[in-house]
Write a structure and sequence with these properties.
It contains nine helices and 15 strands. By secondary structure, the chain is an alpha+beta fold. The strands form three sheets. It has an eight-stranded mixed sheet. The protein binds N-oxalylglycine (OGA) and nickel (II) ion.
Length: 356
């Protein structure tokens, strides 16, 4: 096999790099001065901090929770979800099996590199690194693994880890609960967006919609001032549900990055680009990044709910008016996602390309 065919396979494994115990990071991880993490501001320092929304109260019609959700999605595109109904024990199991997976010896994890017969194009569903387009692209201080969850017939069972033994069962139980949660949250999101049909967004996650789970491992980093755990981006999803064991996630507002608070037992929910497009920009897809950390390793599990790849996505007609003209072009979701992955590698946002 030509070297080129396996190029991305041999992107450095960050966990191995970190284990080597050097004081410095390789130059490919060093971000430009402009992208360097700055000392962060706790989000409580602004007058309307990133809200903590109680989904249980929200679903029982509490107007103050709906107001928090509206403010969260208009201003930040992201919120901390409590009262979500997923037991702490299940969240703990999900974190534990993810961590155990990443702690397997490298050779074992390499079984889950998906080269599909040696094809050289980047495969999202694989153990490895974020997409790398060129020799000069700055790399993220993180290893990651992706699996397709839905439609179930599209699962690549061969890529489902057999170690730790409970991985599959825990993942199945966790994502079954997240799927219900996404449905409930999207109904509330439709209401705050002013859509007449409460199920408008939830119904876009039909039987052909694709959901993925991304597992991210951010090893301790000797120079967190010089790198990023995960570069700034927005997700291509309608909605993303994130579980993490440590702080590090940040979102920008007015030129400043803010920490997303880490609340024990909570999940973080953000709107992705499809949510912004369909609501004609009334609600925001959150740009976010992860900073690295010298003290502790960080593990996260992100469940992405995306629409049918064949679906043409555009703003809901009822949210387009003379006062608020259509802000985004119509696009096929699969084209959008492909574009998004390439934009991510270039450090750009694909949503900017569909803005009118
Ligand atoms: C992602 C992502 C954030 C995190 O996987 O798209 O933004 O906290 N992850 O791991
Ligand atoms: Ni993301």
């Amino acid at each position: 096999m030509a070297d080129d065919d396996q190029k991305w396979k041999f992107l450095p494994n960050v966990q191995e790099l970190a284990a080597a115990g050097r004081d410095e990071v390789p130059s490919r991880y060093v971000v430009s001065d402009h992208d360097r993490p700055t000392s962060t501001v706790a989000s409580d320092d602004v007058t309307d901090p990133i809200p903590v929304v109680d989904l249980n109260r929200l679903s029982s019609g509490a107007a103050d929770e709906a107001a928090k959700l509206r403010s969260a999605l208009q201003n930040w595109g992201i919120f901390v979800a409590v009262g979500h109904g997923i037991e702490p024990a299940l969240l703990g199991e999900m974190m534990a099996v993810t961590r155990e997976f990443f702690k397997l010896p490298l050779e074992e994890k390499q079984q889950y590199i998906n080269l599909e017969g040696g094809k050289k194009e980047y495969k999202l569903e694989s153990y490895g690194s974020n997409m790398d387009l060129s020799e000069t692209q700055v790399l993220d201080w993180c290893d990651r693994f992706y699996l397709t969850m839905e439609p179930e017939c599209q699962r690549l069972e061969d890529l489902w880890p057999t170690q730790p033994p409970s991985f599959r069962d825990v993942l199945h139980r966790y994502t079954t609960r997240c799927r219900k949660l996404a449905d409930g949250v999207l109904r509330e999101v439709a209401k705050v967006a002013g859509l007449r049909e409460e199920r408008y967004l939830a119904d876009m996650l039909d039987e052909k919609a694709v959901s993925y789970v991304g597992f991210n491992f951010f090893p301790r980093c000797p120079r967190p001032d010089k790198v990023l755990g995960f570069r700034a981006h927005s997700d291509g999803s309608m909605l993303t549900i994130l579980l993490a064991n440590a702080a590090g996630l940040q979102v920008p507002r007015d030129g400043q990055w803010y920490d997303v608070p880490l609340v024990p037992g909570a999940l973080v929910v953000n709107l992705g680009d499809m949510g912004e497009v369909v609501t004609n920009g009334l609600l925001k897809s959150a740009v976010h990044k992860v900073v690295a950390n010298a003290e502790r390793e960080r593990v996260s599990v992100a469940a992405f709910y995306t629409v049918d790849p064949e679906r043409e996505v555009e703003p809901a007609l009822e949210l387009v008016s003379d006062e608020r003209p259509r802000r985004y072009k119509k696009m096929k979701n699969s084209d959008y996602i492909r574009e998004l992955l390439e934009s991510l590698a270039r450090g750009e946002r694909s949503i900017d390309r569909v803005k009118i």
